[in-house]
Amino acid sequence: MTQDMTEITAAPAFQAATAELRSTHDAFVDEIVELTQIPAPPFAEEVRAKAYEAKFRALGLEEVGNDAIGNVTGLRRGRGNGRTIVVAAHLDTVFPAGTDVTVRREGTVLRAPGVGDDTRGLAALLAFVRALGAGGVETEADILFVGDVGEEGKGDLRGVRHLLTEGPWAGKVEAFFTIDGLEPSEIVTTAVGSLRYRIGFAGPGGHSFAAFGTANPAYALGQLLTGMAALDVPKTPRTTYSASVMGGGTSINAIPEEAWVEIDLRSEEAGALQALDAQVRALAEAAARDETARAETGEIALTMQRSGARPAGTTPDDARIVQATRAALTAFGFTPSARAASTDANIPMSLGIPALCLGSGGTGGRAHSLDEWIDVEEETSLRGLNAALAAIVATAGLWARD
Amino acid sequence: MTQDMTEITAAPAFQAATAELRSTHDAFVDEIVELTQIPAPPFAEEVRAKAYEAKFRALGLEEVGNDAIGNVTGLRRGRGNGRTIVVAAHLDTVFPAGTDVTVRREGTVLRAPGVGDDTRGLAALLAFVRALGAGGVETEADILFVGDVGEEGKGDLRGVRHLLTEGPWAGKVEAFFTIDGLEPSEIVTTAVGSLRYRIGFAGPGGHSFAAFGTANPAYALGQLLTGMAALDVPKTPRTTYSASVMGGGTSINAIPEEAWVEIDLRSEEAGALQALDAQVRALAEAAARDETARAETGEIALTMQRSGARPAGTTPDDARIVQATRAALTAFGFTPSARAASTDANIPMSLGIPALCLGSGGTGGRAHSLDEWIDVEEETSLRGLNAALAAIVATAGLWARD
């Protein structure tokens, strides 16, 4: 039961909220700079989390806290039925401790590692809370604002995974926004699932000449890679695999004691990912077995260490959150489209919670590089913030006094 | 025309020489310690070479010098026809600069990196020169004593290669001893040839999900390794191959831009080594071609960098040097046998110069490790020195006054 978008955009409270976004845009930009300059390396988001928690408290959110995994949460109560929707942005960056995160401003351009991914998202949440308060916007559902940990790389979505499966909010969330990225028109409604492994083959090693005939882990690795190259994966749902980092051996005149490869398996669909996983596992087992059989002496031992698992999932196009977001984007002049990616929304989607990932506006580039930049030119920036706020309000439901 | 071994061992001059070996054995041991404690890392043999050159001069050798590649040479003239035989030991060790090369003495045991391989050999050459001088032994052929560089690993036999193909002695050497190792009974008359490569496959790389279908160097590497595992190589002449050190890739979510492997090919016979080389090269070329064909986009480029080439070869059992050495070993109570290895003798053998590698006696172990040790217990040590000296004199020919 989605409200007509014009009911929201025409409502005086919502108009007052967007006026607040405009009048405080400079403060929003300052907050991007401030938060960007607090380092938040993978698995070390605490300092930024503390600062973010203080801001949640200052904004008057309720039940503000730092959960067991490190997420910062704060509730804005609705007037309705106790339903809860989540609006999240991630605290962590991909940059290691010691990275220079000083923001350089050139006109409306801000340059710094992490400035767009996802510090603009964090600041956007604060701007939304401020705007909703200033406009006196009342929603039906409660809105839980979240600064979450562990979105990037080896973080493996642990923040949102904990939030939705173990923390106090588990089982209570009805819809989930992650505000991540810039361009709002391309919403992510399909979660690309992934499985990552370090596959190692170990053998006894030995002198290359004297011990010739001993099982060589490199040949087991070769057989696995050759098998992978020949795998047939579906184009729809898009399913991919890659051998990426590899290594082994210590000396050119020695049969290596180990050969290993890191692999990355992905799919837009959980079943296809599972099928690919089983195929690769079978290839690895056969490779170890066959090299052991081929050798005159020595055995190859296989180890598969999982280094990442992000579930696949999809939010149906007729879900309220998707309908509301499409309508909000259209209302603010965007042409919405849907795409697949791996974001914090993977977790809710895999749990059947309608979810999507939405950009907060502005432009930029070079995310995950030291040259990362965003442009906060006001009109473009505000158009994105307004659309995102409308999408959130429409998903939560604008409380109607009558 | 080999002299009867008893003509040599019974000659008063030779007996005086072996008496000198015995009476100066303590000095010989001290010289092992002294030389061991002068570091001679790969490609940095200069300091030890300088010290060795000074010893050659002090012993009265003629034409003492340090050639263009770093070998130390010194001539002991014969009385005969101007024929020249070489007696060499290698200056270099496998140990990098900074390795603690302090010798620890425990009774007759000496412990230090490089003490046996090949510092005992270097000291043996000095003992031989001293003994020949003290005994007044006159040989038919000139004997060129050589402390050579680059025997180990990446040194790739460059010292002896230069000596016999480019230096002033090129084309003038009739037989070649390398005094390397301890146990004298197992002489090396077959040179195991080797070819070493770094084989690299390069492609454009890309994001593991977004760029799926791009040529992946890891799969080309896999095909090469799988092909190598299936190669059929002869048992006689013993021919072997090994994939050893490998690597590639930088990030688990990226298709690697490179995958590489170092390989070691060996054979006792030059033709078999050449055939194996051609097979591996064909496999590598096919692997690059097939992955390029399999991929939707991107090309795999192959590079094969040769990092080592040691020629194969054999000294026939009826060569004077082999006959003389077998007779000398037998005369001193050893039971001679022949084996295959990769030593400085590879170079002369590949050039058709009769050559062999002979141990200088004593016992020991753990060569190429920091725990390397030798035992210089006098009787065992002298028996080896005596036999080696007899082999050298018999190969050079004991000059008969009559």
From TrEMBL, chains A, B:
The keyword Metal-binding applies. Residues 192-290 form the Peptidase M20 dimerisation domain. GO terms for molecular function: hydrolase activity; metal ion binding. It holds the Pfam family Peptidase_M20. Gene3D superfamilies: 3.30.70.360, Zn peptidases. Keywords: Hydrolase, Metal-binding. InterPro entries: Bact_exopeptidase_dim_dom, Peptidase_M20, Peptidase_M20_dimer, Peptidase_M20A. This is Di/tripeptidase. It comes from Pseudoroseicyclus aestuarii.
